[in-house]
Design a protein that fits this description.
The structure holds two protein chains of two kinds.
Chain A: H1 2-33, E1 56-60, E2 70-80, E3 87-98, E4 113-117, E5 128-130, H2 133-140, E6 151-153, E7 160-168, E8 180-187, E9 197-202, E10 205-211
Antiparallel strand pairs in A: 1-10, 2-3, 3-4, 5-6, 6-7, 7-8, 9-10
Chain B: H1 11-14, H2 22-31, H3 33-47, H4 56-61, H5 67-88, H6 96-105, H7 114-142, H8 151-173, H9 178-189, H10 204-209, H11 212-221, H12 228-256, H13 265-281, H14 306-314, H15 317-337, H16 349-371, H17 379-406, H18 410-413, H19 416-433, H20 438-453, H21 463-470, H22 481-485, H23 492-538
Helix pairs in contact in B: 2-23, 5-7, 5-13, 6-7, 7-8, 7-13, 8-9, 8-12, 14-16, 16-17, 17-19, 19-23
Classes of the chains: A alpha+beta, B mainly alpha.
Chain lengths: ~220, ~550
């Protein structure tokens, strides 16, 4: 018993540096697999890099005058990547929709528009703007209550969003940005409304100032 | 051996272990867990069968035992054709679709499109791999081939099937077409739900803080989006997933002197002929180039993911993620619940019904998603309900058999808490889904969980009032007006009743099961001691 214990102790003492060295080596390899700029062990658990996105003009106000006018656009967000280019431009498709006046706060110019990322928060497909009730019922399995108005609808798992109604999201704090998002989920498995984009209206154009992260582009 | 205190245990601790009773067996199980596990795995490792290489005798009379050999042969064909394709394929997003077109159209020998044929063999060979692997898993399941120490054969077959499916997923992104892009996107968004564990789960918040779901997605994609880094990564995974398991199998064949493929050369020729014929008759499709800006409607994945894809429409995504990971785990769990030695078809009906049910869901879900005729609001309860029904039919058939075998009275062999649990699940699902919408049920369940956790506000969804008005006949339970006025979700009383019922059944079933197990172990111990006594007296 005594001998076994001594041998065990010696083995443990010798193996500790070996195990430690292996962990460090593995760490280097794992860091290579994970393209993020946060260094050290903590980098392994860090959230993905969402490189700061620059201002981009995506639509003219003059294009969106009538109710339910909409425009799709592409917003480019760069992120770091261990490819030959060293970065990857993630194209984030988006929608600007002009709401009818009954949903608009007359004092707030920005409330006329709903600006969302077109990446479905369910499993990442690009959703569509459906302005036809038969298409929504037949293709997306949602019979909208009358009077009909257009909806966002995703072809992959048939999530449908109502752009006129806001929905609070889990963990949101009232009064802060992104607390109540337009595009309430009215059908299908999506857990929350579409990811949003913060925007400004300047010189007759709609400018994207910031995007909500977390999706796969 | 199993009932005895191990000799290496210090006497000071050994004295604490009772002479008999449930506590003794639980303590012994805990103390000997590691050595028992090592023994268990070593025994299964020796009996393991991968590609029916140990079933040489059965294969002579029963063609179902040739499946393993045919499976391995399909794998070899896929690897050979794949290596040939690697010569011409270029893994770069801007050019990979074009390089596949080149392989398809430019690589010809006279009038024979060699490139298209090689690609066809690769694609349909992979499909054959999946089909044969599934058939072999079912053969093991239906013939009870996992019993009597052969569990590892089934587990390895199942793991190889999953590896094959992932190899397929990583393989079809390489074409860089629409189907591949969207399937990859769905697959890569999956792990992000692992960061959204509810706070009432133990360690839920801690796991969320580690970002391990997002990290998994990033490691898979090589970034936050699908791009050039993803293609090179998937190229590496695709090759590695197919090649590494093969090396392990070859080493086992080499070490133990097995026959590699337990089929005749004619059978190999037939399998190759069928794959080649399909490749010529139905040329492998290429689709349209990937476009991240447009998701086509309808969009389908490869055929073996279709059923899973349909399931995603019916479920809350967090639950669906857990289920997708959990289905193979559940199958493996069912394997260990079926502990009786009988392997005959009629003597293990509950296992048969689990197998048949799985097959039915796979076929019907795939059909529904291809035809696009499912109603995601109304169909879900039907599926839950039928799942319970399959289990109950299987259970009652099994029960009848056990009663006859042991010539027992009905109450001696009836698992009342199991049956009540299944019935409660069925009634909960049917009732709640017919309140209006699957989401209504999900929302109220979640809200209750939040309430139970002591935080989070509950919201009443006005949209469902509209929905309920359109189908008044389905409102089976009337929530008191005061509850509705307080803004609480509807039907909460029924939900509470079900939760308490489930927990009660689980606890009662566990207690009864443990008591029976302890009694059985005590009886074994008594037999052991009776054998040991005369010897002690003689010495």
């Amino acid at each position: 018993m005594q001998e076994n214990t001594r041998r065990f102790l010696l083995k443990t003492i010798t193996s500790l540096p070996i195990v430690g060295g292996s962990v460090l080596a593995m760490h280097a390899i794992l860091r290579f697999f994970k393209p993020t700029m946060v260094g050290g062990i903590t980098g392994l658990m860090a959230p993905p890099d969402e490189a700061g996105s620059a201002l981009q003009a995506v639509a003219q106000v003059s294009e969106l005058t009538k109710p339910w006018d909409f425009k799709d656009f592409i917003y480019v967000r760069k992120s770091v990547e261990y490819s030959s280019r060293k970065w990857q431009g993630a194209k984030i498709p988006g929608f600007v929709v002009r709401l009818p006046d009954e949903f608009v706060d007359p004092k707030d110019e920005k409330s006329k528009y709903v600006v969302v990322q077109r990446i479905c928060p369910h499993l990442g497909c690009t959703f569509n703007f459906i302005s036809n009730s038969e298409e929504l019922a037949g293709g997306y399995n949602y019979k909208a209550p009358p009077p009909f108005h257009p909806h966002f609808a995703c072809p992959c798992h048939l999530s449908v969003y109502d752009p006129t109604r806001p929905q609070p999201i889990a963990g949101s704090v009232a009064g802060k940005a992104f607390d109540k998002l337009p595009g309430k989920v009215v059908s299908g498995p999506a857990p929350r409304p579409p990811r949003t984009m913060a925007f400004d209206i300047k010189d007759g154009q709609i400018w994207i100032t910031d995007t909500e992260g977390g999706g796969v582009g | 051996m199993v009932n005895q205190v191990p000799t290496w245990l210090p006497a000071r601790i050994a004295n604490f272990i009772p002479r008999q009773g449930l506590l003794r067996h639980l303590l012994l199980g805990l103390i000997c867990a590691v050595p028992n596990l090592v023994d268990w795995v070593a025994d299964r490792w020796n009996k393991m069968d991968l590609f029916d290489e140990t079933h040489v005798q059965e294969a002579k009379t029963n063609p179902w035992y040739s499946l393993g050999g045919m499976w391995y042969w399909a794998w070899i064909l896929v690897i050979i054709s794949g290596v040939i394709l690697m010569i011409y394929y270029i893994p770069e997003t801007s050019i990979s679709f074009r390089s596949i077109e080149n392989i398809q159209s430019n690589w010809v020998w006279g009038a024979i499109p060699i490139g298209a044929m090689v690609r066809g063999i690769h694609k349909y060979g992979a499909d054959a791999f999946i089909i044969l692997a599934t058939m072999k898993c079912y053969r093991i399941w239906f013939t009870g081939g996992y019993k009597n120490g052969r569990e590892l054969s089934f587990i390895v077959a199942m793991v190889l099937l999953i590896i094959g499916m992932y190899s397929g997923l990583t393989g079809y992104l390489l074409i860089w077409n629409q189907r591949a892009l969207w399937a990859t996107k769905v697959m890569a968004t999956f792990p992000t739900y692992l960061d959204q564990n509810p706070s009432y789960l133990p360690l839920g918040e801690f796991i969320n803080a580690t970002n391990q779901g997002k990290t998994t997605a990033q490691v898979l994609l090589g970034g936050t989006s699908i791009g050039p880094a993803t293609v090179t990564r998937f190229y590496a995974f695709h090759f590695m997933l197919s090649f590494v398991p093969m090396i392990f199998f070859e080493l086992r064949v080499y070490n133990r002197g097995f026959k590699r493929m337990n089929i005749s050369n004619w059978a190999k020729l037939a399998v190759f002929g069928v794959i080649l014929a399909v490749a010529i008759l139905i040329p492998a499709a290429q689709g349209s180039p990937a476009n991240p800006e447009v998701t086509p409607n309808p969009i389908l994945s490869d055929w073996y993911f279709l059923a899973m894809y349909h399931m995603l429409k019916l479920q809350d995504p967090y639950l669906a993620t857990i289920l997708t990971v959990g289905i193979p785990v559940l199958v493996l769990l069912a394997l260990f619940l079926d502990r009786r030695p009988e392997t005959e078809w009629g003597k293990r009906q509950i296992a048969n019904w689990i197998g048949i049910g799985g097959l039915i869901y796979f076929i019907v879900f795939s059909f529904l998603i291809i035809e696009g005729i499912a109603d995601i609001h109304r169909d879900a309860p039907l599926w839950y309900y039928s799942m319970g029904l399959f289990l109950l039919i299987g259970y009652f058939q099994d029960w009848a058999y056990v009663m006859k075998r042991d010539s027992a009275k009905w109450w001696q062999t009836f698992h009342v808490f199991f049956v009540v649990f299944i019935l409660l699940c069925m009634s909960a699902n049917t009732l709640y889904h017919y309140f209006g919408d699957i989401r209504e049920w999900n929302n109220s369940a979640k809200a209750l969980m939040e309430q139970m956790a002591g935080g989070g506000a509950m919201t009443q969804d006005a949209a469902y009032d509209l929905l309920e008005k359109t189908r008044p006949g389905l409102n089976l339970w009337h929530t008191p007006a005061a509850t509705v006025a307080a803004g609480k979700p509807k039907g909460m009383e029924l939900w509470l009743f079900h939760v308490i019922g489930w927990l009660g059944c689980i606890v009662a079933g566990t207690v009864i099961g443990l008591a029976r197990w302890g009694a059985k172990r005590d009886a074994e111990l008594a037999v052991l001691e009776a054998k040991a006594k005369p010897k002690a007296a003689g010495a």
